[in-house]
Design goal:
Order of helices and strands: EEEHEHEHHEHEHHEHEEHEEHEHEHEEEH
CATH superfamily of the largest domain: Dihydropteroate synthase-like
Number of strands: 17
Distance between the termini: 37 Å
Helix content: 40-55%
Number of helices: 13
Enzyme class: oxidoreductase
Radius of gyration: 25 Å
Number of domains: 2
Catalytic activity: (2E)-4-hydroxy-3-methylbut-2-enyl diphosphate + oxidized [flavodoxin] + H2O + 2 H(+) = 2-C-methyl-D-erythritol 2,4-cyclic diphosphate + reduced [flavodoxin]
CATH architecture of the largest domain: Alpha-Beta Barrel
Family: Belongs to the IspG family.
Protein name: 4-hydroxy-3-methylbut-2-en-1-yl diphosphate synthase (flavodoxin)
Strand order of the largest sheet: 3-4-5-6-7-8-9-11
CATH topology of the largest domain: TIM Barrel
Cofactor: [4Fe-4S] cluster
Largest sheet: 8 strands, parallel, barrel
Strand content: 15-25%
Shape: elongated
């Protein structure tokens, strides 16, 4: 008989890391993070985008620190965010000259909550370990954690060549792809060991191993989790645009999360021209919420539509309610504790409408094609009203607002669990 996994596997036990007040790893919930695509030296645009990402739900935001001008801008960005009342941790993404930028700009080193180092391009040949060590020592001096982020596209070529030669000497028992995966894992672990040898404690180290193919990501992180207890940052690099990027990231990270692997995630979507950068944050939240790991927003259940629902009223109402809830959540989280657990149903006909509405906290079953122009509303499983006429949508939204105030408002009776 087949055995079905009804619950996620227990979380892979990792060492907790404090990133500017946000805990990654240990028993903490999986953290959502993102990255800006502005020129960090442009303080105004970077502050605006960090604020938008954080308000959308990004709990950590990474920014590029690639030259003197961007390093000099970091403390200004931090100060501006604090004036806006935003305490989001900022992570500095360093490549090639990170050791020099951190040394030349101590205010930048202090303003950042974490440093990200790519061991494949922190330096080359005899300079690599020395420059990597310089950054680690800077992290120790400023009491900052470090993410050691290996990337398939910038892998340490000396390590890869050595492993390929060793594999060939053994009669090539592994494919080139398998050797490359092993090189990624070894690069992360060897770099982490070096950081610890320098004096950075394991509680200040996060590992990531970014690749662009789903099966490679699953294989690499499964092996990393087997061989270490470091906190792990999940992400499919160069995931792509639109539905392709969403599906690829969700497939890869969904499998790993179900296996208990992953402490923080980023969905790396290529934005459409002029597109909204916050979309990657919403996708990450939806992935975690859909899988039952975290609850960010009230759930709005809506039927997909069929020949019985030629009217678009239910689609428009479902979209309006989702947009309204998402827009109001930053305020509602404070005003209505627990509102993110709300379940709303917006159904389009009599087939499943009443049943789904009864299962929700509050739901409406709109009339389908040929049905009586009446929309029963159910609250906590009981029929509360029947709406008719041209203002059904507005009336239901008013009922929803009243229900939220009654159930989650300051005067509501709190259940003791």
């Amino acid at each position: 008989m087949s055995q079905y996994l009804s619950e996620p596997l227990p979380r892979h036990r990792t060492v907790a890391v404090d990133v500017g007040g946000v805990t990654v790893g240990g028993d903490a919930p999986v953290v959502v993070q993102s990255m800006t695509n502005t020129d960090t030296a442009d303080v105004d645009s970077t502050v605006a985008q960090v604020a938008a990402l954080h308000r959308a739900g990004s709990e950590i935001v990474r920014i590029t620190v690639d030259r003197d001008e961007s390093a000099a801008a970091v403390p200004k960005i931090r100060e501006r965010l604090e004036r806006l009342g935003l305490s989001v941790p900022l992570v500095g993404d360093f490549h090639y000259i990170g050791h020099k930028l951190l040394a030349d700009h101590p205010a930048c080193a202090e303003a950042l909550a974490k440093y990200r180092i790519n061991p494949g391009n922190v330096g080359f040949r005899e300079k690599r370990d020395r420059q990597f060590t310089d950054i680690v020592e800077m992290a120790i001096r400023h009491d900052k954690p470090v993410r050691i982020g290996v990337n398939w596209g910038s892998l340490d070529q000396e390590l890869l060549t050595r492993l390929m030669d060793e594999n060939h000497a053994k009669g090539a028992p592994l494919t080139a792809r398998e050797v490359t995966r092993e090189a990624i894992v070894q690069s992360a672990l060897l770099s982490a060991n070096l950081a610890e040898d320098v004096g950075l404690p394991r509680s200040r180290i996060i590992l990531s191993a970014k690749v662009s193919q789903v099966q490679d990501l699953i294989a690499v992180y499964t092996e990393l989790a087997r061989r270490s207890d470091h906190a792990l940052h999940l992400g499919l690099t160069e995931a792509g645009m639109g539905s392709k990027g969403i599906v690829a990231s969700s497939a890869a990270m969904g499998i790993l999360l179900q296996q208990g692997i992953g402490d923080t995630i980023r969905v790396s979507l290529t934005p459409e021209p002029g597109g909204d950068r916050t979309r990657e944050v919403l996708v990450a939240q939806e992935l975690l919420q859909t899988m039952g790991f975290r609850q960010f927003l009230p759930v709005v259940a809506a039927c997909p539509g069929c020949g019985r629902t030629t009217s678009t009223v239910f689609q428009e109402l479902a979209r309006a309610i989702e947009d309204d809830l998402r827009e109001r959540m930053p305020v509602w989280r404070e005003k209505y504790p627990g509102v993110e657990e709300l379940k709303v149903a917006v159904m389009g006909c009599i087939v499943n409408g009443p049943g789904e509405s009864k299962h929700a906290d509050i739901g409406i079953s709109l009339p389908g094609t040929g049905e009586s122009p009446a929309a029963p509303v159910f609250i906590e499983g009981r029929k509360a009203a029947t709406l008719r006429g041209p203002d059904i949508a507005a009336e239901f939204r008013d009922m929803l607002a009243e229900y939220i105030e009654r159930r989650f408002g300051s005067g509501a009776e709190r259940k003791v669990g």
